[in-house]
Amino acid sequence: MSIADSPSRPRHWPLTYIFPTSSGLGGRWTTVIYGLFLAGVALWILNYLFLATARHQGDEDNYLFASKVLANWLLQRPPVPTLAKVIDAVVDNGWFMPGMLLVTVPAFIADPLLSAANHIWLWRLNSALLSFAVWIWTLRRVDLLLGQTFTIALLICPTLILGWILFTSTIFGEVVGGLLIAVAFAQAYRLALILLHQDRVDLATILRFELLLLAVVYVRGNAIVLVFAIHVFLAVMVLLADRREFVLRNLSNSLAGVLVFAALLAPWSLLVSSKLGGPVLTTSTLTLSLGITFGGANQICFGPCPGDNTWREAVKFSREYGRAHQISELEAQKLMTDYALRNVTYTSYMKRVAHNFRSFLSTPTAFFDRFASGVKSITDKDVLAALSDLVKYASLAVYVPVILLLLCANVWIVTPRNLEMQVMSLCVKLFTLCIFVQPFLHPSHARYWPLFAPLMGLSAAFLFNLAFARRLGPAGVFPDLAAASVRPRVGTFLLVVQALYSAMFILMAFQICCFLIA
């Protein structure tokens, strides 16, 4: 018997492992899934070959420097940095979580000469392999938890959006973070259904979920808002149950999970807080971002900051101001932001929010030209211009329909007749709300949209299932949530929550559109 025919290694083994539910269905849809997957693999490889020699951009500088310092310290490789210098490099200004930094260390361990000008291909390869592995795992988990429709949706969006593929060979955390958020979405949905069904969720399941959420936060610090909202959402699902013993048991397990999450996040929070001289939960960006984004860069240093990089000059100024006035740099940044925001009105604030949303949502390929300018393998400007047009229009062909479906899913209201769809509707709205908070607090541009790209695909699949009255999830995965299995007022409560959110979403979208037009 050949290896291919062995019972332990079924035919098409890698694909049946990645798609354990969909691959067993057979038929043309399985062929479609396999075809889309192979297309995604091809795009991954082509993108890596294109970016292999591209110089690093923006925040990649920080990761590159800190990873090299950490690798030299771990291997005691000359020049051996002190522990204090390692902490300074890793924490830096407190802007970045250490997750993406840590996963780039292997590239520096493999090649001590790695730098911006030497062997950058290895660093790009490390990033491409990391994002590819997370993509594979995300497809497998979504296929197990949500089924074929959602698997196909993820294979189309974000996988076929060339502007998203571009980021898979970079160390920006949005691609990995967005994929992890997609798994968290599927898992939160499943847990909510189990809780509404008044079934017990064991502690091991909760701990695995908390570790997933912890990974999301260590990749993208601002995801702490989403993590908090997920915990509130699931706590409400517990409280909607009838049986007191069920509520107490699940609440106690959930509390244990939250304590584990807090305990594993605490070392980073304490480290960055001690270095910056003030309380920091994940990152310290928020204070300065409010002042620079909404108060104006020419006001954040009690006037214009010297130098070209406003962000770094503002941090430098806050340290000097803090030393002069015997306060921490975080306290100084708070005073600087208060000064910059002193003349902000609701109108000026919303104009900036509208501008942020336009950059956040409408330019999915804006970073192509920035990376293409650093590519050494292609120097012909006509070829690069043609590639830029191809990436732009091919991306928009997929991006525009799915972003519209995401917005549609946020205003759609599901009736109590279908509790499974009601829960899914609430998950879509909750995750969108928490991700779309960014333009209200921080500069938002085309680097950040990959964080919600997988959510667009999941939302499209949700609407497809809703339109064709398809049951969510593979057969046997979820309890049958008929209306009779929960209290009647639960469906009504979920209906009211959806209606209130949809009204708020429409009102805010209308205001943003008005400020964009004005």
UniProtKB/TrEMBL annotation:
List the keywords (alphabetical).
Membrane, Transmembrane, Transmembrane helix
**Which ranges does the record mark as transmembrane?**
32-51, 95-114, 120-137, 144-165, 171-189, 224-241, 253-271, 393-414, 426-442, 448-469, 490-510
Name the chain's protein. Uncharacterized protein
Source organism per entry reads Aquibium pacificus
Q: Tell me the classification of the organism that encodes this protein.
A: Bacteria, Pseudomonadati, Pseudomonadota, Alphaproteobacteria, Hyphomicrobiales
